[in-house]
TrEMBL record:
SMART domains reported for this sequence: HATPase_c (SM00387)
Record localization: Cytoplasm
Protein name as annotated: Oxygen sensor histidine kinase NreB
InterPro entries: HATPase_C_sf, HATPase_dom, His_kinase_dom, Sensor_HK_TwoCompSys, Sig_transdc_His_kin-like_C, Sig_transdc_His_kin_sub3_dim/P
Annotated function: Member of the two-component regulatory system NreB/NreC involved in the control of dissimilatory nitrate/nitrite reduction in response to oxygen. NreB functions as a direct oxygen sensor histidine kinase which is autophosphorylated, in the absence of oxygen, probably at the conserved histidine residue, and transfers its phosphate group probably to a conserved aspartate residue of NreC. NreB/NreC activates the expression of the nitrate (narGHJI) and nitrite (nir) reductase operons, as well as the putative nitrate transporter gene narT.
Domain annotation Histidine kinase: ranges: 579-662
Substrates-to-products reaction catalysed: ATP + protein L-histidine = ADP + protein N-phospho-L-histidine
Native species: Streptomyces gottesmaniae
Entry's EC annotation: 2.7.13.3
Keywords recorded for this protein, A-Z: 4Fe-4S, ATP-binding, Cytoplasm, Iron, Iron-sulfur, Kinase, Membrane, Metal-binding, Nucleotide-binding, Phosphoprotein, Transferase, Transmembrane, Transmembrane helix, Two-component regulatory system
């Protein structure tokens, strides 16, 4: 940041601090002076305008010190000093025995020091968020507001009247006989505060409709705050029923809170101006100011009633200041936790992540819980883990902000990288946050190692199963086509030999050998059938799946099988056939369906098998039986997944995805 920007930033901080301090000091000074001279009532809406608007403006100046929006929001900071200067002039003129130095300046400022919001309330919606007037209607409206407000300010400075806070103190620069300046002042005030604000709100609505993305969301929030302010102004004008002054003051207070609250939400939720940390401090300052002001007023009032002017009253006030000083840390911690999670407590981050990871059933699921929990614990926009074994992500990175990367290690090896998205381009990063994320990265490394082991085991299991099924297919072919026919032929030869032998005893022995050989052939056929479903070798997988649906009148069965399902690996064929057979049997027996559809197709190198019926579905509290477990195990054996989707009265869909690798 350039030197000029630093100067502007510190100037904005000084103005906001001076304005806030002035508003806080106005309350006791007004109460003290009201006991001695006539002063106008003190409106809480003015104090809110003089504190909240400048504080939010200072926060904007932290990120964009050259943005006109921040300086417009700083204009109401004059409210506090304006009251204090007018009270100073009133004390000098009406209470003090001798005039105090510079009271004329205070009296003059007390006549016009409130005009800052004539400029601020209509111009902020026109310039938000980037301080540019990009269309002719906005430029025309802005120039009209500045011109009318400037004329009104000049008329207010020269009008022949008393100061607003203390009517008994005259304007030292007031021009006698120019009472018509009052009309000019009120006309300009109405034109800017009502007409200008309404025009700015209409233009804001039109801008919001044309905007997209984050800018649209930012404008929508300001539109809500601007409309709230306009409605509060008009509700005071259009209300025909006489209402208490406090009610009108509260209505005005709510309306004036709308724009700064909307700007704060746009900064927090949509990353505007990169001011999250400073905004957190501003919130703490505002809360503590309100707390101290309220407690102070209560204690002072109580001290006056209990022991006016005594040591007890002084001790009560000192005790209030001590509570406020000690309470700052508690309030700051609560606000930081709301905005940034547990960024200042690494152990809380690790504990939060541990609680979220514990219920996971497998490493991949645990890793997803880990990145979700880390993002939640630190209020991050984006977290992700990347490794050859597992890749998960939570949220999305902020455009242009990027992320920080942390290596994840286990057993001395780097197994992946944990990426933590920045909240903004200038996102501050503390040592405690660094320590917390590094600790979580070590846990992620352990999970990645476990995920790699699980993947290796699954891959080895799939290879073993594939080799086993291929060997079974080869053995079945050899036994069925080679040894089986050979043994059957030998049995026929023995039968022929027995008929040719004249010796009855020898012929009986040969027939006994023949019968034993035929029994062996039968046993061999049983073994062959157990090695692999015969229908797969006879008809192939497509024919075997169609055969499953043959012979049923109810439900009406239909099939759609991709021609690419021929010549798949033996393990995939067996798993697909077994899953389809079990699913079709369950639908026929239990679903009371009128229609059943079986589809099989190839998607890249994955066989997608689905069986859908229109039956009664599976009851919600149904306990999965052997059939469902068997289908899931069949799919898992070849590295696939099985999904069962059902709802009462809407049928059931069994869908299996079975990877086949390179087809044979």
């Amino acid at each position: 940041m350039s030197r000029r920007d630093r100067v502007l930033r510190h100037t904005a901080y000084g103005i906001a601090g001076l304005g806030t301090a002035g508003c806080v000091a106005t309350v006791p000074v007004h109460g003290w002076l009201a006991e001695r001279i006539v002063v106008t009532p003190l409106y809480w809406s003015d104090l809110v305008l003089g504190t909240v608007w400048p504080l939010v403006g200072a926060v904007v100046a932290r990120g964009r010190p050259r943005n006109p929006v921040c300086w417009l929001m700083l204009l109401p900071a004059m409210i506090g000093p304006y009251h204090l200067l007018a009270y100073y002039a009133g004390y000098s003129r009406l209470v003090a025995a001798d005039p105090l130095p510079g009271w004329e300046v205070g009296a003059w400022v007390g006549c016009w020091g409130f005009v800052g919001y004539w400029f601020a309330t209509p111009l902020v919606p026109l310039l938000f968020p980037y301080g540019r007037l990009e269309t002719a209607p906005r430029r025309a409206c802005a120039w009209a507001v500045v011109t009318v407000a400037g004329i009104g300010t000049l008329a207010t400075m020269l009008r022949p009247s008393g100061t607003d806070p203390v009517p008994g103190v005259p304007n030292p620069l007031g021009i006698a006989g120019w009472e018509w300046l009052h009309v000019v002042m009120f006309t300009c005030a109405a034109a800017t505060m009502l007409g200008g604000t309404l025009a700015a709100a209409v233009l804001l609505v039109l801008r919001t409709r044309a905007a997209t993305g984050a800018e649209r969301a930012q404008l929508q929030w300001l539109m809500l705050g601007g409309l709230l302010m306009v409605f509060s102004f008009f509700s005071l004008l259009l209300d025909d029923v006489e209402q208490p002054a406090l009610v009108g003051d509260l209505v005005m207070l709510v309306g004036l809170l709308g724009p700064p609250a909307s700007v704060a939400v746009a900064m927090l939720r949509h990353g505007l101006f990169d001011v999250e940390l400073v905004l957190g401090r501003a919130i703490v300052f505002t809360l503590l100011s309100a707390l101290v002001l309220g407690v102070y007023a209560g204690v002072v009032a109580g001290a006056r009633l209990i022991a006016p002017g005594s040591l007890t009253g002084t001790c009560l006030i000192a005790f209030t200041a001590l509570i406020a000083a000690n309470g700052r840390g508690t309030v700051q911690a609560a606000v930081d936790r709301t905005l940034f999670g547990h960024r200042h407590d690494p152990y809380a981050v690790v504990a939060h992540v541990g609680r979220r990871v514990a219920p996971a059933g497998e490493p991949v699921e645990a890793m997803q819980h880990l990145v979700d929990a880390l993002r939640s614990a630190l209020r991050l926009p984006y977290t992700a883990f990347e490794s050859p074994a597992v890749a998960t992500a939570s949220g999305s990175p902020v455009a242009g902000a990027g992320w920080r990367s942390f290596p994840c290690r286990a057993l001395g090896r780097e197994l992946g990288v944990l990426r933590v998205g920045r909240r903004s381009v200038n996102d501050p990063w503390t040592a405690k946050e660094q320590a917390a994320v590094e600790e979580v990265a070590d846990r992620a490394g352990t999970l990645a190692y476990a995920a790699g082991l699980v993947e290796d085991i699954a891959r080895s299991r799939s290879r073993i199963l594939s080799v086993r099924e291929e060997e079974r297919r080869r053995l079945r072919a050899d036994l069925h086509d080679g040894i089986g026919p050979s043994l059957a032929g030998t049995a026929l030869q023995l039968d022929a030999l027995a008929r040719r032998i004249d010796d009855p005893h020898l012929a009986e022995c040969v027939r006994t050998l023949r019968d034993r050989l035929r029994s062996t052939v039968t046993d061999l056929r049983t073994v062959v059938q157990g090695l692999r479903p015969a229908v797969l070798d006879q008809l192939g997988l497509p024919g075997a799946l169609r055969e499953l649906l043959a012979g049923y009148d109810t439900p009406a069965c239909h099939s759609s099988i991709d021609g690419a399902c021929h010549s798949l690996p033996a393990a995939v064929e067996v798993a697909a056939y077994a899953i389809a057979a079990e699913a079709v049997a369950n639908a026929v027996r239990h679903s009371a369906a009128g229609r059943l559809e079986l589809t099989a197709r190839m998607e890249d190198t994955v066989l997608i098998l689905s069986i859908r019926d229109n039956g009664r579905g599976i009851p919600p509290k149904h306990r999965a039986g052997v059939g469902l477990h068997s289908m899931r195990e069949r799919a898992a054996e070849v590295g696939g997944r099985l999904e069962v989707t059902t709802a009462p009265g809407e049928g059931t869909l069994v869908r299996a995805g079975l990877p086949v690798g390179e087809q044979r």
